[in-house]
Sequence to fold (434 residues):
Amino acid sequence: MKTDFNETEVGLIPNDWNTKLLNNIFKIVTGNTPPTFDRSYYNGDIPFIGPGDLGENRNIYNSEKKLSEKGYAISRKIPKNSILVTCIGSTTGKTGITTKPSATNQQINALLPNEFINQFFVYYYLSLISRKIRSMASEQAVPLLNKNDFGQLAIPLPPTLSEQQAIATVLSDNDAWIESLEAQIEKKKLIKQGTMQELLTGKRRLPGFGEGKGWKDSEVGRIPEDWEVKKLGDVFNISGGYSASREQLGEKGLFYLHYGDIHLSQKTYICTEIDYSRIPKLDVALNGISKATLLIDGDVVFVDASEDMIGTSRYVVVRNKKNHNFLSGLHTIVAKEKTKTLDNLFKEYVFQNERVKFQFCYYAVGTKVSGISKSSIKKINFPIPPTLAEQEAIANILSEMDEEIEVLEKKVEKAKGIKQGLMQVLLTGKIRLV
Fold:
């Protein structure tokens, strides 16, 4: 059946669809915050939802803060299946749906359920236009979208509840697929974390290594008697990076490793082949650049500044097989191996030992920004197996686990791309299901 389209304030939609203002079809409630000085209002079981509790997933199952029954009694009550939309700050436009009776703070507008409108259809449409919602926020120091302006937002609606439901069901099925993949990823990450801590401390030895060996006490706890404890400064020459601001970076010149890119990375390595297009460039002459700043295969680069304490232990190992000219940059500490002590792949995991990460936190200084100095980083102790062969065997197991996680992450990325495409055609009526 051929569908004719009309031009409306929300764009082209089928001529049997309507547009409605949010405040004409929903009761809109802005949350409030019970007095924080009275702790009897808090620490109960009722979700008290803030912008940080709204993520990429649709359903809101939990919240960082909880209200007591006393706190809930003086809050604006939000029933199950309410659509929540952040209305202030940089997170304006983030959406979610409550799965149980809840309350919200004043940074969130809630669309309470309407039995004649499918909440999930509206949720998906608001997710689709999240950028538009952000653009509606007033221009001031902190962007704000008040309840009245939010209520004037128009949305398209299919003529029947059954068509709204059909569209929402397809998108819900896609969400369920994404959530199942993400659950698998989290499970594999937990397994990897446990395996990694056992292997990096010698609590678990791989076949062919350490048979019949006992244990000894060390600066980093009990380790196998044939393992060694090394200081970073004994294994590596330590130096600083080449300072350049983010504004100086572009698409031409020498590869440049900015400390911010280490913080943003989900990996403990950076590869000049795989990450070629993502590595920023600095247009600067090579002569005059210290060799200590140029990164070669196997170099380790630590950050020297972080907004949180645990971030001071962030690092990447450089994979640079083709010897590209690669500069370590602002707020980085470069560790170049003195003699071959560590397997390169093992370097990507050895500093994730929890006792090692604790030392980074111990030596970090600062209030708003935590930092670690080159002199302090030299003092950090870490345990290592006695042979490169055992190091390599440990690293290979952990690398295989990482590869399994990466495969699932790519599936999630693909599923999200499919979802975005479906939203574009289903929520605007370009494809009809009924």
In short: Residues 161-201 form the longest helix (41 residues). The mean pLDDT is 93. The CA atoms of residues 125 and 427 lie 6 Å apart. The chain is about 35% helix and 20% strand.
